[in-house]
Amino acid sequence: MIGRKIVVLGTGGTVAGRAASATDNLAYTAGQVAVADLLHGVARPAGFELLAEQVTQVDSKDMDFEVWRILALRCAHWLAQPEVAGVVVTHGTDTMEETAFFLHCVLAPARPVVLTGAMRPATSVTADGPRNVADALAVAATAGAQGVVVVFAGQVHAAAEVAKTHAHRLEAFGSGESAPLGLVDEGGVRMAHPWPAGDSAQARSLLQRVAAAPSWPRVEIVMNYAGAGPGIVEALVKQGVRGIVAAGTGNGTLHRSLEEALVQAQSAGVAVVRSTRCAMGSVVPHARDRLPHSPLPPVKARVALMLELLA
Ligand code: SIN
Questions:
Q1: CA of 50 to the centre of ligand 1 (A)
Q2: Ligand 1 centroid distance, CA of 234 (Å)
Q3: pLDDT per residue over 96-119, tens digit each?
């Protein structure tokens, strides 16, 4: 039987942002309004009790490992309660895809964990937060829902596919070459694809490592571009970086000077993976590759490498 409680974990973001005027959608401060207040007046699924918990109040550009650790443990705590149908996480949009992917890796939940946010602050006369939060609650209350998803502007996206694709528009998220998993219209959830599934045994062991780790292994992203050189990689190696994700051009290609520096970094014990800076598609490996590739976009490849190095 489905639980009748939905837990809403607040982490900040524009959805909880406050501006001096109701028409100002730019000069606001993110992470100001308490998560309990974000639920006032929001349509909630019939027969469900809501429980709000403030995990933190940050602008998600400042997201860090410690917040991720606490958030993952709070999700795991609530998902272990049989009366909880699902968890909604209110979050800034800027790093939402990274948090969603991180939670996907360390939870792989059999119930839904739904991230949502807003492009306009809570004080805006045209705020999009209330609709997104209502949609997220509807998804969390859906029988059979599972996995980590992002619900935004009426669409349901899988954590593994979702990315912020627009800097300002209300339809700010997409799933790249994959279609959204489903749609939410006036509280009605229509799924076109199966809910995301993950490896729960692997997730449990990753979560234990995350819980016990005092800090995360330093993994940086280096981009390829016209004229890219070895300097940044050499500096990172000197600083003791544990891993580097190379955001290559096209099919993960790298300027020869940058590639040489990365090969040397790898020989010195740094974990190196190649991704692509292209918004769509992922690196297809071939026999002449000198460096391993990741099928993930750079920011998610970084999360995956960081978790691998935690081992
Ligand atoms: C943030 O990511 O916390 C600020 C921007 C936003 O939520 O849209």
A1: 24
A2: 33
A3: 999 999 999 999 999 999 999 999
